[in-house]
Structure formats: structure tokens, C-alpha cells
Specification:
- The protein has about 375 residues and is mainly α.
- The chain has one domain.
- It has 17 helices and two strands.
- It has a two-stranded antiparallel sheet with strand order 1-2.
- The mean pLDDT is about 85.
Length: about 375
Amino acid sequence: MVAGIVGAVTGFASTFAVVLAGLLAVGATPAEAASGLLTLCLLQAALAVVLSWRARQPLSFAWSTPGAALLVAAQGSTSSFGAAVGAFIVCGALVVLTGLWPRLGRMMTSIPAPLTGAMLAGILFPLCLAPVTASVEAPLLALPIVVVWLVLQRFAPRWAVPAAMVVALIGIVIVSGGAPIEAGSALPGLHLVIPELDPLVIVSLGIPLYIVTMAGQNVPGFAVLSTFGYDHVPTRAVLVGSGAATMIGAPFGAHAVNLAALSAAIMAGPDAHPDRGRRWIAAVAGGISYLPLGLAAGIAGSFVTGASPLLIEAVAGLALIGAFISGLVSAFADERHRLAAAATFVVVASGMAVVGIGSAFWGLLVGGAVYLWTSRRR
């Protein structure tokens, strides 16, 4: 149970700022962003409790952190949150279809790892630069955050990002002269947003969100469970359940729910319980822990919206460095495909938009063309 609580708290504290910043970047109001964070927590709790109990396996769920970073990178691609919600629904539908139609799953996993890794790294790269920018522009606020993060990376890596967030919140309170919490915003509510199906937003946001969620969260999540000896994970139930949860939660601001990777490592490992057959209790405890954490979404949203965006992005960048490293390693591990990976990374990191379609789509397209051309030449 302690392992589940630790997994939930670290998962929430490490990246909730990325989620809120991402939702705000695609047109959500502060209340809608808090609603999205609350909805994600509720859905993750329900999936973890029900599926872990039924399968007797530690099936923990989380929001798509790479997906949230994609939303931040897509800032300005749409001013209508309803269009973004429509893209979230399409992403969820594709995940459901992946679970129901094995051929689509094979097509998804057949996208070369150098391209998906480079795409993920390109999305995260601008955010990972934020700690550097903040340290130059606001050193008195940003440097303590970086120093605390770096010290705990040496002694207690699991708590490095949550501790950095605490230091950032203290800095926000000091600068603002008090906690920047608006009256009535402490408790979040659910805000319904009418979806809009905009083809350009679906192509530039919905499809890349599906790809990074599958490649950056679901596939690593299954790999973690396999590493700890869980060879018969109910893949269809996990994908259909998380995809359906995404579709249900999207009108309330939830961008994507998926199988956890970091939390899975905490809850599925031997530190949770020596007996592999008992570790499902950790995932259930973690799911239940998301309920009170979700109630903090309003306070979290007030802090994030009342703070300097650069400071919040600095903490988000520190939280995403691990995922950025994983993307780079995956992108450039195979010497034969480094040119294609570099093309994908450069185009995605550029943040360009052509005919209203964002750089994530174009980076994958350019990288795929280079990959096919260089492979054929060899």
C-alpha cells in the first residue's frame, strides 16, 4: 500500500504542471484545465482499481506526460479548446481500435523506433531548455529549483522533481506576496466542453498525441510489467479501457489516459511486495490515492496560472529530462538510421506549422521519407 501511495504522489507531483500548462496552451481556461486534471485523476483511479483487482496484477494508470508536452509544443495551433477536445476523442478512439484490432497495433509498433524516439525528443526539447532559460532570466528563483533537483538526483532521485516543485511553489508565494489562489478555486469542478472535429487539429494534435501516448507510455508500461515477470498482461482490456476512458474524459478536459511506466516500476517491483501475486494491492492503493490528489487540482491550477510561465516550464523541463534522454537514446542507438532520426528531431523541435498542421506530424513525415530513402539505398 505504501508503494502505491508513493507511486501516485510522485506521479502527480512530478508532472501535474506539464498537464496544466499543456491544456492552457491549447485554449483551456484555468477552470477547464483544473477540470481536466481532476478528470484524469478520477479515470486513472477507476481503471487501476477495477483492472488490477480483476487481473490480480499491478496495472497502474497515468496521464500521458509526453502528450501533455506535445500540447505545450502545439501552443498557438488552435485557439479553440473544443477543437483540442475533439482531437483528444480521436486519440482515445485510436487507442480503443488498437486494442480491438491487432493489425493496427502491429502497424503502430512497426513505426521504426528511431523515428518515434526522435519525435518524442523533439517534442520535449523546447521544454527541457526552460530550466536553462529560467536560470539566466530569473536566477534567484530558478537556480534554487535546479540545485535542489540536482542534489536529490544524487541522494533520492524519486523525490527530485516533487522537491523542485515545492521550491518553485515557495518562490511563487514569495514573489506574489501570498498564495495565488483565487476565491472559490480551491475545489475543482467538472466543466463540460463541446467537442469540435477540426481536421487540421486532428492531424496536427490528435494523431501525434496517439503516437506519443502509445510509443512513450503504453509500450514502455507493458515492457516494465514484462520485466517484473508479468507475461500475461490483459493487453486488450488495458488499451480498450484507457482509450474509452480518454474518450469519456475528453469533454471534461482530459487529454489522454494510458498505462503507467514510472508508477508501474514502483508498484510492480519487489520493493512493493516480495510476492509477485500480492503486488496488485499497490496499484489499487495508488489508484485510490489519486482521488484526494484530484481534489487538489483547483489549488494546483491556481498556482500554475498565477505563476510565471517560465518558472513552471522550468520545473516541467526538469521532470521531462528523463523522458528526453530515453527518446534520444532510442533515436540514435542504431547507427544506420541516425540521419532519419536527426531529420525527425530537427523538424519536430523547430515548432513550425505548415497549412495549420504542427511540427510533430511533419517531423514524422519527413523522417519517414528519409528513413525509406536511405534504407532503399542500402
